[in-house]
Amino acid sequence: MKNIKLIIAALLICVASFGQQLKVNKEVLGNYKDKEVILYTLTNKAGNVLKVTNYGAKIVQINVPDKNGNIDNVTIGSDKFDGIVKGDPFGGATIGRFANRIANGKFTLDGVEYNLPINNRPNTLHGGPNGWYTKVWNTETVKSKSPAVKFSYTSPDMEEGFPGTVQVSVTYTWTDKNEIIIDYAATTDKKTVINLTNHAYFNLHGAGKGYIFDHILTLKSSAYTPLNSTKIPTGEIKQVKGTPYDFTTPHTIGYKIGETYESSTFQGYDDNYVLDNKEKVDATVYDPESGRVMEVITDEPGLQFYSGNSMQWKRAIENGTKGVNTRSGFALETQHFPDSPNQSTFPTTVLNPGVKMKSRTIYKFSIRKE
């Protein structure tokens, strides 16, 4: 009898261990520039799935239920090799060394002018044409109560024109509450600038299931940073009240798009919001059709709201098979402000040696049955 109990106990331990291993599944998809591109599937206790890859340290799939229990992927991306390396370069990726735009590809630090490659004329966008979204990151699974994966990368001094060798990591944790917790960390050996974000596109109907204008957005932001003609902040912090940028009370994403504003047709959003940072949740998106809710929680001072104005990319691949239609996804990118190295009144993006930059953003998915 004692031997039977021991055998049963051993089997239970093996089953428990096997279940724990299934929380993070690793699959090698192929090789890119002699490095393995790996897909990680993170499964929580409810059976909901987050898929991430070390190419660009990006999110490629988020599978969560609607109010009727139907599971859909709510982010635009691909879990196939070709879709990951040949699809939209920004979608779902970790953006660095500097997210958003730097005016004319130049900034000055301690009297030294640094020149960056221009990839969004006349500016540098998202760290340049060979930013961190193009890199195959190192990987490791993380011991945690929830399934988690850590990606790390060493950015050499003067990569894409930025000073300092930077050690950066991003950790994705997928909780039983359907939260994607994104933890960023970075250090440098030389004074530099850094601004990190995740560039996921969302559609709470489900990826490929129609437009996002009917999604209801609430932004805890009473101000935004107006842009010039090349999408660089003018330096002004402007109140949203009385403008199409006001989401302090809930509105559909498309509520002002197509209307006349400042003598022209308002085309949509690709703008940095100054977060009030007074409440736990900084932004909420609700889809009445599916009942899905997405909350954004961050310690960053800003958030870029993009309403999918021009998502018809030649290389865009949705779920590995078909192109992405314009207005079929939105982005809420937590960040420091665009062009901060050239804007002395904005929160600083300078990182000094001996200092560890840390930042956390959470995307939480739930259901509202109204």
From TrEMBL:
Q: Does the keyword Calcium apply?
A: yes
- Report the PROSITE patterns cross-referenced here: ALDOSE_1_EPIMERASE
**SUPFAM superfamilies recorded for this chain?**
Galactose mutarotase-like
**Keyword terms, alphabetized:** Calcium, Carbohydrate metabolism, Isomerase, Signal
Segment forming the signal sequence: 1-21
Q: Quote the EC number.
A: 5.1.3.3
Active-site residue list = H199, E333
Q: Which residues bind beta-D-galactose?
A: N100, R101, H199, A200, Y201, D270
Catalytic reactions on record? alpha-D-glucose = beta-D-glucose
Q: Which CDD domains match?
A: galactose_mutarotase_like
* Pfam family membership, one: Aldose_epim
Family membership noted in the UniProt record: Belongs to the aldose epimerase family.
Concerning PANTHER family, the annotation shows: ALDOSE-1-EPIMERASE, GALACTOSE MUTAROTASE
Q: Which NCBIfam families match?
A: PRK11055.1
| Name of the protein in its database record | Aldose 1-epimerase
Origin organism is: Paludibacter propionicigenes (strain DSM 17365 / JCM 13257 / WB4)
The taxonomy runs:
Bacteria, Pseudomonadati, Bacteroidota, Bacteroidia, Bacteroidales
